[in-house]
């Protein structure tokens, strides 16, 4: 009986650990790495996993960087389930699991910051860097997604659709060297420090919202009314720094 109870306890712990966001994220990243390694030539595509770059205001952590002659692919992984609703222009997307609805940051906006960091760190032009968001898990898109938001099976198709050489062989080698030189060591300490940085940024944004300030630039939010479109007449909070900052949030 004791042995049986111990087995049940161990199984329970494993199930609870698998539910942790950090464990789910690590599993998703590992799966994407395997898909890339199995379907793309290592000679033509160089994969860098869990890359953390220092920035002026902290760090940026990138799930996967794929370097090739056809460009550098900045890949963000989302391991989620349920129905996914989203629009490229929205600040947040929606996850719906039965009657439960939750919001999460638009992954395209999140990955845009990553691509900007990659461009600056590697000295690349915008047309040489591609943002790619990959959803895995038991999820289903319920709105039309852009071509760079895909399931794992669509990731390889998207990458292989880029056929125009944008980077020479020598530049490719130099880019790989710069990544190795500039990335922070992929240690537990680096990950913990990055998580603390992200938590501080989220806390600051939440405080700005409480103070009715723009979560992006910190300027006051003003009440505006839509003048056209499907939601004509509906009010919303818009950044007072518009058009320099186009951040909005619902009333």
Low-confidence stretches: 9-25
First-to-last CA distance: 58 Å
What is the global morphology?
globular
Treating each run of at least 4 consecutive H or I residues as one helix, how many helices? 6
SSE order, one letter for each helix or strand: HHEEEEEEHEEEHHHEEE
Number of strand segments:
12
Residue share in β-strands: 25-35%
Number of structural units classed as domains: 2
Question: Could you walk me through the main structural features you see in this protein, from its secondary elements to its overall organization?
Answer:
The protein is α/β, with parallel strands linked by helices and 251 residues long. It has two domains: 182 residues, no CATH class; 36 residues, no CATH class. Helices cover 39% and strands 29% of the residues. The protein has six helices and twelve strands. A five-stranded mixed beta sheet has the order 1-2-3-7-9, with helices on both faces. A hairpin with a 6-residue loop joins strand 4 and strand 5. The longest helix is centred in the last third of the chain and has 23 residues. About 7% of the residues have low confidence.
Give a brief rundown of this model:
This protein has 251 residues and is α/β, with parallel strands linked by helices. The protein is 39% helix and 29% strand.
